[in-house]
Amino acid sequence: MLFQPLLCLFSSDLAIDLGTANTLIYTKSGGIVLNEPSMVAVRKGDQRVGKVLAVGKEAKEMLGRTPSDIAVIRPMADGVIADFDNTEIMLKYFIRKVHKRGSLVKPRIMISVPSGVTQVEKRAVRESAESAGAREVFLVEEPMAAAIGADLPITEPTSNIIVDIGAGTTEVAVISMAGTVYSRSVRVGGDKMDESILQYLKRKYNLLIGLQTAEFIKIAVGRACQTEETGTLEVKGRDLVTGIPKTLTIDSEEIREAISGQVVTIVQTVRIALEQIPPELSADVVDNGIFLIGGGALLRDLDVLLREETGLPITITDDPLTTVVLGTGKALSNLSLFREIMAD
Fold this sequence. Notes:
This protein has 344 residues and is α+β, with helices and mostly antiparallel strands. Helix content is 39%, strand content 27%. It is built from 13 helices and 19 strands. The protein has a 6-stranded mixed sheet, with helices on both faces. A 5-stranded mixed sheet has the order 13-12-11-17-18, sandwiched between helices. The chain has a 3-stranded antiparallel sheet with strand order 5-4-6. Helix 5 (142-149) crosses helix 12 (323-333). It starts with a helix and ends with a strand.
């Protein structure tokens, strides 16, 4: 039958990392063709009507700067769909933006999902992608996609540990023989760190800042463990006592203290996973170590802390932010080879 090969010639299949903070889209011909915030700006009261004002980067630019009748929302929460209608609108916008031949042939789409998602959540992702214009929808678990993206030997009888620290969740998975031996997901990630920084400054200095500022602080001076090297940063916000803007200087040790709860949770999740590994695979872990991916992998000294806590080699992939979408793209381009790893 020539029909299916001809469809492939005229369509541009899409691999999507539908993240809590950012959505990335990969095509075989163009590589990563989209990397935008998973955000939608709507008029309040119109969230369910589809009165969307902006999507992606344009929506994020409005965050914290809109009048009271406009809301900037994240339709994804903890790595899964929290708002079906706006996720569908967001996906349609992103797909149309990158799929130039959308009117001729609908694309096949593969989407990465957290390993801990329920069947209901998987169905929501499928239906959202189909409503957004997909011809076929495939799902792959994020740790498996990350292992493929990092070029790990997932089909061999050797274990590889993936730690994926995203905005909404942290996932730890042990992969061997093209399957997941063990996986654990906790709803702790970059977003919770941002919220902790916001609350820390509010509690200690009576300074009110926004989540975007908290994220900037985390990236600029955040770190996972104490070091002799310290950094400082000027932070601008509103004084909760006087009600007027003010500026103060904070250092990296304060931010380390602010996010210590989330960092401890991540370390504990990794330790629990190591305790669950079958003895036969433990020797592989000693040799191969742990691979860090996701935006949280870029937190300063997190690899140092994990190395101290586990005694294992820690490797941050070349580009932690794109590892999952690259692996999803590879899996979609080689469906016959990777079909067995697809999420049901």
